[in-house]
Each structure stands twice: as structure tokens, then as C-alpha cells.
Specification:
- By secondary structure, the chain is an alpha/beta fold.
- It folds into two domains: 2-260, Rossmann fold, CATH 3.40.50; 272-379, CBS-domain.
- Helix content is 36%, strand content 22%.
- The protein has 17 helices and 17 strands.
- The chain has helices spanning 5-11, 59-66, 89-94, 111-115, 117-121, 126-139, 144-147, 157-169, 187-204, 215-221, 240-245, 250-256, 260-264, 287-296, 343-352, 372-382, 388-393; strands spanning 20-28, 34-43, 48-52, 74-79, 82-83, 96-100, 175-179, 207-211, 224-228, 234-238, 280-282, 301-305, 311-316, 331-332, 336-338, 358-362, 365-370.
- The strands form four sheets. It has a six-stranded mixed β-sheet, sandwiched between helices. It has a four-stranded antiparallel β-sheet with strand order 2-1-4-5, covered by helices on one side.
- Strand 16 (358-362) and strand 17 (365-370) form a beta hairpin.
- The longest helix is centred in the middle third of the chain and has 18 residues, at 187-204.
- It is elongated, with a radius of gyration of 26 Å.
Length: 394
């Protein structure tokens, strides 16, 4: 999906992202039941806001009121400075992209025609519609020459979800609404789609309201997360890191889970202060040099680099006996992560490779290592200043 992201960003941003503001928005049904009760919410332009909460809390109703699929019974909804409760709802929906769980593609239309649905309703020129459809298919990782003339039943579930995203973006909407779009695919495909969607959002920077029941998905995708309780009462609206590190109340703490310390690993980046710096030697150094380096720092092992300072592996004090050079006794090291990785990625790599430490690289340049102890210390620093029970959960 990211191969054409830069080109897509240039071509797909003719419309500016728009902020969304809800003021005392209410949905009350004829039987007196209240789905949403005077909800205030302020979403910034270009922000990915995730709505989470228990079943029946009104998160999907809230999202559907933004494009008036469901009409509010009270309050006001703004896109930018425009109160959308006072405009034609059909025209409004053509300005807002909408992605749902089951995609909702037209089975009798080709993928290219599905993507071009809204531009066609807006009266675009046929050639412009084809060009835009092909551009969006490329942007979401579907070759238009391969997939353009296929039909929905010929695609996998993950491919259909990509088409749904492409269709929602086709008319360059100011806002994108997404209702559990990835929940109908298997976990492996879901994780891949989430990663590709993040790269796409980095390119197009739409204002997005995303509904999910999965707090881990919310943490991975959201710039901010709105936790709703019954009747869409807003309990906390915060960044993933703050939500996990300092829940506003018992309801939020219970909803995000007792393992919130582990979840926080996914939103905590690796900092320079988190790294340990073991002895560093080079592959063509002598074993005597290796022994001396480890002795100076009272270390049981050392990192081995090549002469270009790229990671080669490691060597233990026990292996560095006798004569010869380091490369003849050292071990290759496959446990590494890029500097921009999260603590969760580092921890997962450590477990997967059954390694006692994981190297952190800037490109191919070695920066330092994370050990279980330094990883734990990094996470504790990230929740510094939170309530004792929260810190204790880490």
C-alpha cells in the first residue's frame, strides 16, 4: 500500500481535512430510550479518533449521526464551521467517506466501478472516474490492471476491505467514517490491514472517526481514543499512552483492562535513554582484544560489529578463549528492531528469537541493546507520575 503513498498524497488531498465538533448531541427514540445523551466531542482536523465502549453505549449511533444516516434529536454537529444538521443529508453523505464491517460492495459491478460509485453520483467525467479509481486501487495496494475488471466475489476478504477504503476515499472526502471495518477478517489479515491503513492515513491525513470494540485496535490506530459508557457518556478522551497510563476513573481502568501495562508497550517508543551499551568489538579484532574489552566493563558478552559499524553478532566471554579472531568464535545475531519500533516490537522479537537481548538499529547502524531489565525500566519511566496502582500493573 505504501509504494504509491507519496504520489497518492499529492493527488488525493485537493480537499482539506476538516475538524468535527459535537455539541450536546442527543438521540432519543420514540419509546423514550436514549442512545446518546448530550455528547460533546471535539475532533481535530487530520486526527484519527477512535470510539470505544461496551455494546449499546452509542458509539455506532454517534458515528452515524455525523453523516445523518441516523438523525439526531438534539444538539449540533459541525464539520469545520458548518452545522451539518441544517444541510441536505444526501449531499452531506457524498462529502463523507463511509466504510463498514461487511464492506457493502455492489456484487454486480466491477471493482473499478465500485470504487467510482460516489464520483459517478457527483457527475464526474467518465475518464476522470476511471483515472481516480485506478489511482485509489494502487494506493491501497491493488493493481488496477489485475483487479479493476474483477468482481467482489473474486477477491479475498482483506482485498474487499481495501476496495471499501478506496471507494470511501474516491471523491476526496473531508471526513472518513469507519465502523469496525477490519473485524470480519482473520487476525493475521486484520493486523496487516491495520498496518497498511496507518501508512495510508500518513499519506492522505483525513479526519477519521473509527468505531471498534477492540481496545488493542484502538490503541494501535488512534491518535486519540474516546471511551464511552452508557448513552455515550464520555468518560475519557485522550492519547493511547495517557489512556493506558492514567485512566480517568474506575470505568476506564476496567474497560482498558488490567493488562494495560502490556498494552502500553505498543504505544511506547524506544528512547536513547532506554538502551544499554555493552562492550563493542569488531569482527576482525583478536580474541585477546575481546577478552580485554569484556574484562574492562566486567561484562559476560560483547556486541560484534563489522568495520562499517553494522551489527554482525555477539561473543561470550567463554567463547573468547585462546588465539584467533572474533569472527571465528562469534555468533550471528538476528534479534534486532529498528530505532522507530515500539517496546512491544522489541519484546516480541526477544521472545520470538528466544534472545536475552535485542539490538536497536538506525538503518544498519548499531545504537545499543534492550535487555529484559532495560525494557521494563523503559516502560516504568513511560508511566512515571501515574497512580501507584497503575504503575504497579506494569
Amino acid at each position: 500500500m505504501d509504494a504509491t503513498a507519496e504520489r497518492g498524497a499529492q493527488q488525493a488531498q485537493s480537499a482539506e481535512a476538516s475538524p468535527i465538533r459535537l455539541e450536546k448531541v442527543t438521540k432519543r427514540y420514540a419509546d423514550g430510550s436514549v442512545a446518546v445523551d448530550e455528547l460533546d466531542l471535539d475532533i481535530q482536523a487530520g486526527e484519527l479518533c477512535v470510539l470505544v465502549g461496551p455494546s449499546g453505549c452509542g458509539k455506532t449511533t454517534t458515528m452515524k449521526m455525523i453523516n445523518r444516516v441516523i438523525e439526531p434529536t438534539g444538539g449540533r454537529i459541525f464539520l469545520g464551521d458548518e452545522d451539518v444538521t441544517k444541510v441536505d443529508p444526501v449531499q452531506l453523505r457524498r462529502r463523507i467517506g463511509y466504510v463498514i464491517q461487511q464492506v457493502g460492495l455492489f456484487p454486480h459491478q466491477s471493482i473499478r466501478n465500485n470504487v467510482g460509485t460516489v464520483p459517478r453520483l457527483l457527475g464526474w467525467d467518465k475518464r476522470k472516474i476511471v483515472n481516480r479509481s485506478d489511482e485509489l486501487m494502487e494506493l491501497v495496494g491493488l493493481d488496477p490492471k489485475t483487479f479493476g475488471d474483477r468482481y467482489p466475489h473474486q477477491l479475498s476478504g482483506g482485498q474487499r476491505q481495501r476496495v471499501g477504503v478506496a471507494r470511501a476515499l474516491a471523491a476526496d472526502p473531508v471526513v472518513l467514517l469507519m465502523d469496525e471495518p477490519f473485524s470480519a477478517v482473520d487476525p493475521i489479515v486484520r493486523e496487516r490491514l491495520q498496518g497498511e491503513f496507518l501508512r495510508l492515513q500518513e499519506a492522505v491525513r483525513k479526519t477519521i472517526v473509527f468505531v471498534t470494540h477492540d481496545i488493542e485496535e484502538a490503541v494501535r490506530l488512534g491518535d486519540r481514543i474516546a471511551v464511552l459508557s452508557q448513552s455515550a457518556k464520555l468518560e475519557q478522551f485522550d492519547s493511547p499512552a495517557n489512556l493506558l497510563g492514567n485512566p480517568a476513573n474506575d470505568f476506564v481502568a476496567g474497560f482498558v483492562g488490567s493488562d494495560r501495562g502490556l498494552k502500553r508497550l505498543a504505544v511506547t517508543s524506544i528512547g536513547a535513554d532506554d538502551l544499554d551499551h555493552p562492550p563493542v568489538i569488531h569482527a576482525d579484532d583478536s580474541l585477546a582484544d575481546a577478552r580485554a574489552a569484556m574484562k574492562r566493563e566486567d561484562a559476560r558478552w560483547a556486541v560484534v560489529l563489522d568495520r562499517d559499524e553494522n551489527l554482525h553478532g555477539w561473543i561470550s566471554r567463554e567463547a573468547a578463549t585462546g588465539d584467533g579472531d572474533v569472527v571465528s568464535r562469534g555468533h550471528r545475531m538476528e534479534a534486532w528492531v529498528p530505532a522507530e519500533a515500539s517496546l512491544k516490537s522489541a519484546f516480541a522479537t526477544m521472545l520470538q528469537m528466544d534472545a536475552g537481548w535485542v539490538a536497536v538499529l538506525d538503518g544498519s547502524r548499531f545504537l545499543g541493546v534492550l535487555t529484559p531489565e532495560s525494557l521494563h525500566a523503559a516502560l516504568r519511566r513511560s508511566v512515571d507520575g501515574t497512580e501507584p496502582e497503575i504503575a504497579g500493573a506494569v
